[in-house]
Amino acid sequence: MAALMVSISGVRGIVGESLTPAIIEKYALAYGSFINRGTIILGRDSRTSGEFINNIVQGCLLATGCKVIDVGIVPTPTVQMEILHHKAQGGIAITASHNPPEWNGLKFMDANGRFLSPDNANKVYSEADKGNFNLQKWDDIGSFKSDKNANKRHIKALLKLPYFDVKELRKRKFKVIVDCVNGAGGLIIPQLLEELGCEIKVINGEPNGYFAHTPEPLPENLTELSKTVKKKKADIGFAVDPDVDRCAIIANKGNIIGEEYTLALAVKFILSKELGNVVVNMSTSRASEDIAKYYNCPFIRTKVGEINVAEEMVKSEAIIGGEGNGGVILPELHLGRDAPAAVALTLQALLEFDGSMNELFLSLPQYKIVKKKISIEGLNPDELLQKMGEKHKNKKIDFLDGLKIDTENTWVHLRKSNTEPIIRVMAEAPTEKEAEKLANTYLKEIQSL
Ligand code: MG
Fold first, then answer.
1. 167-188 mean pLDDT
2. 57 and 93 share a domain?
3. Burial status of residue 84 (CB atoms within 10 A of its CB: 0-12, 13-18, 19 or more)
4. CATH label of the domain that carries residue 187
5. Are residues 397 and 351 in the same domain?
6. Residue 95 · residue 44 · CB < 8 Å
7. Residue 1: its pLDDT value, please?
8. Per residue in 114-138, pLDDT tens?
9. Rounded distance between C-alpha atoms, residue 95 and residue 84, angstroms
10. Do 53 and 141 belong to one domain?
11. d(CA 352, ligand 1 centre) in Å
12. Closest among 203, 202, 201 to 212, alpha carbons compared
């Protein structure tokens, strides 16, 4: 049985196994107590377990005296935006992000619409374990209302940003295929594309929680989308994950250009309008870094995890940032990964570029990332990474998040998993062959230790 995953990205488990009503209850009560009778936005993705979890969470928040605004089935970034819109003190997105349909979980946010800081998340988790809850008496129970306009408001706020020329986009009538994998995206991405005057074909648009394929927007899961883009001679294809914070792009030839290029494109587009700081995580492609260098803009890397990137973006007043897994953070909108923003930015970039999506992709710095993992059963992962660092001490090494080793045009990032006895090995190089070779070299080195 897969264990409950508790991390800075929230709590995730398999429904009826590691994620039971009792588990949901203790985290919801602890979070409600933490928010201390404030207003909380409650939203969920389309998973079949969403409704029952929603009811438990809602009950717990009322029991701790909080005011709940239920926004229904929405993307995680929409919950983040609704916190700002309603000036709420927090928010919960009921989702297991890109995990398969049997999973679900809770993502907790603060009054700034950001994920809880690691310190605050740990506070909530420890109170949940201790059973320390701020339960209210009968005359101090919280209140409830529902608001069904969140997705519409999200689209409106996005298209109001100065980057978008909606009139010209409508004239251009992009032919777009979108795969929403039966997640929450079906309620916002087609609507956004319609606003932009696109000719749309939606695959897996019904938000019913029966994901038509493995929901992570990785190339191996996007074959139907890729074929459809090619067959229909579309300008572009988009795939989003069930809670719509990640977005992958398919170019006009049906080629899956991969999630890393969603962020690289957004970085290039924003910096071409305005110069400023860029923040990404340690595992994000060099493509974004090369683009920032080209524009002479400061480029900062953080630990992996949306909140780490978002906090650094605030500190350094960055104008664009995100994570290489298709997670674009546009701070003018809010400080979370936002797939609708990625879709709109990509279309505007394509509108302004004189050529096809594939040509636009080829105009960006070209790299390939290879991801592998290795079992280290019975070994101490931290000691292992220390030893690897020692071995490569003559290179540019960084222990901020696992071990990263940079060379002139490649890098390798080794990270332990918090849930399994494995080390993840990511390697990037100008070609797939080189990246593969690099990753294998490090796998062998770990094996020999
Ligand atoms: Mg997600």
1. 98
2. yes
3. middle
4. 3.40.120.10
5. no
6. yes
7. 67
8. 999 999 999 999 999 999 999 999 9
9. 20
10. yes
11. 29
12. 203
Task: State the pLDDT at residue 354.
Answer: 86
Distance 242 CA to ligand 1 centre (A): 6
The model's pLDDT over 204-218, given as tens digits with 9 standing for 90+, comes to 999 999 999 999 999
What's the CA-to-centroid distance between 103 and ligand 1, angstroms? 12
Look up the domain containing 46 and give its range.
5-148
Q: What mean pLDDT comes out for the span 13-23? A: 97
Do residues 123 and 41 both lie within one domain? yes
CATH number for the domain harbouring residue 403: 3.30.310.50
**Percentage above 90 pLDDT, the chain:** 95
Tokens of 430: 């100008």
Q: Which two tokens stand for residue 169?
A: 């986009």
Domain boundary residue, one of 304, 337, 362? 362
Catalytic residues: 97
Average pLDDT of the residues in 244-252: 98
When divided into structural domains, the chain yields a total of 4
Enter the DSSP assignment of 362: H
Which strand (E) or helix (H) includes residue 413? strand 411-416
For residue 21, give the nearest of 48, 45, 54 by alpha carbon.
54
Last residue of a domain, one of 203, 235, 252: 252
How close is the Cα of 383 to the center of ligand 1, in Å?
A: 31
pLDDT at 105 over 90: yes
Predicted TM-score (pTM) of the model is 0.96
435-440 mean pLDDT: 96
Q: Ligand 1 centroid to 17 CA: how many Å?
A: 21
Strands 10-14 and 103-109: antiparallel
Ligand 1 is an ion; its neighbours by CB within 5 Å are 97, 241, 243, 245
The three-class DSSP label of residue 423 is strand
Q: Mean of the pLDDT values across residues 37-59?
A: 98
Is residue 296 over pLDDT 80? yes
Work out the angle between the directed axes of helices 118-130 and 21-35 (0-180°, nearest 10): 120
